[in-house]
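Working notes for the structural subgroup meeting. M.R. asked for a predicted model of this chain before we commit to crystallization trials. I am recording the input and output together here so anyone reviewing the notebook later can reproduce the run.

Input as submitted:
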Amino acid sequence: MAHSDSPATPGAPKPAAGGGVRMVRVPDDRAGQRLDNFLLGQLKGAPKSLVYKIVRSGQVRVNGGRAKADTRLEGGDEVRIPPVRLIEPGDKGAPARGLLEAMESSIVFEDARLLAISKPSGVASHGGSGISFGVIETLRALRPNQSLELVHRLDRDTSGLMVVAKKRSALTQLQALMREDGAGLRKRYLALLAGRMPDGVMSVDAPLHVGLRQGGERHVQVNDGGKPSLSHIRALERRGGHSYCEVRIETGRTHQIRVHAQHIGHPVAGDDKYGDPEVNRRLREQVGLKRLFLHAASMEFALDDGRVPYVLTAPLAPELVAVLDRLGG
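Returned structure, recorded in token form:
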């Protein structure tokens, strides 16, 4: 039976929802991009769950073979994209004015190549799983004539620094730095950990495995079969019997800080997934902590082979400053 494969052309135009199978040649400037992210760019409006489903089922092929969602593409690769039924553009409306204003006021840095925000807690990095508008969709609505791509993600409940690329060259440089696992890009977080952490720096070297629970929810655990993961935790202050800490991560695994903190017996305060329910309840009642106490505070890197250094920072979210004040010494 004949099917409607179209010729492989760089960045082939996207058909209307429900069109035929497409063969898309990966442009050279997309080399190194993950397959799932490439598909999200090709299938505008598709939820991530749908992208993972068509990859897992083998409907997506790279150079004729099956591939995984985290496969890194090369320029010239041919990607088979099956027909998928999408909500027509426009069905979702536009981001609420409050979200647009919050995102505009959260910008902490901008130049010709990069834009950085201090993401509020509760806002997803991107839409999907019932969320129409995350950080990237809202920024694109604010800047409709600009090309914007997420450099990295933060958990929905984590606040703080997020970097968005305005130029493809900056995105590919930063993605290459991130693959160096800590050597090319330094990330610093601030967290309140339950209980009294010992003095000095505690390095947690524990491999992490991402599993899926029923309903597609990700759950991460320390597992020898997981990916190498390294965090360095240093107590800055004792507050109300708990530890206000600086965390530097050398790897950027899903939920890394939260699972490593749980692993050493000092979970992140306010973490309803990996935390201590009793500690969370007391902190909510006594000092009004109603969210995960984890904040991406800074990122250091250099572009253009080290010639252009960046030190980007996002001040601790006001509601977390208030919690520290109420906890006292």
